[in-house]
Design goal:
The protein is mainly β. The chain has one domain (23-127). It is 11% helix and 41% strand. The chain contains one helix and ten strands. The chain has one helix at residues 2-15; strands spanning 22-32, 35-39, 48-49, 52-55, 63-67, 75-76, 80-82, 95-99, 105-110, 118-127. Strands 1, 2, 3, 6, 7 and 10 form a six-stranded antiparallel β-sheet that branches. A four-stranded antiparallel β-sheet has the order 4-5-9-8, with no helix packed on it. The longest helix has 14 residues, at 2-15. The relative contact order is 0.24. It binds 2-acetamido-2-deoxy-beta-D-glucopyranose (NAG) (3 copies). Residues 32-33, 115-117 line the site of one 2-acetamido-2-deoxy-beta-D-glucopyranose. This is DUF7808 domain-containing protein. Residues 1-17 form the signal peptide. Pfam families: DUF7808. Residues 47-127 form the DUF7808 domain.
Length: 128
């Protein structure tokens, strides 16, 4: 019996080597223009003001970056956004996640996306 459990765990970790080692937690950042709220729940409840910083000195090069409170996470997932078709927010060009030098994870937005009303959901992977 034990050997079977061990064998199947071994097989599972072999088939899904990465996901097996992580605890995935959801983060939703709901932004009305530059003001964002963060939820750590899968159902997007419990929104509280996100810790955001702003840089850039003109409307064109404004840069908004919000902490998504994933300190210690090793990876992140694809980001889903709502509305999905909002064309001013394009991952890598006007928004993305970033791991800062002090181990925090942020979502940044710039250009027109920095002023958008947009909700973004990402998952952080914490090592088990
Ligand atoms: C918000 O971020 C600033 C700069 O990183 C930090 O000094 C401050 O402690 C943070 N506040 C909270 C509530 O996390
Ligand atoms: C936003 O930032 C990205 C990455 O730094 C950069 O490639 C892009 O040109 C910037 N876009 C605008 C509109 O400032
Ligand atoms: C964002 O939402 C606010 C309040 O609903 C609205 O006044 C504003 O025009 C919206 N901004 C954009 C860029 O859609």
């Amino acid at each position: 019996m034990q050997i079977l459990v061990f064998l199947s765990l071994f097989l599972i970790s072999f088939i899904f080597p990465a996901d097996f080692l992580y605890l995935w937690e959801p983060r939703t950042l709901q932004c009305l223009s530059k003001g964002c709220k963060l939820s750590k729940n899968a159902d997007q409840t419990g929104l509280s003001p996100a810790n955001c910083s702003f840089s850039g000195n003109s409307a064109e090069n404004v840069f908004v970056e919000c902490d998504i409170e994933c300190d210690g996470a090793e990876r992140d997932s694809v980001i889903s956004k709502k509305p999905t078709v909002y064309r001013y927010c394009n991952r890598f060009f006007t928004y993305n996640t970033r791991k800062t030098s002090d181990g925090k994870w942020t979502v940044w937005r710039n250009g027109t996306c920095a002023n958008a009303n947009i909700t973004m959901t990402v998952h952080c992977a914490f090592p088990l």
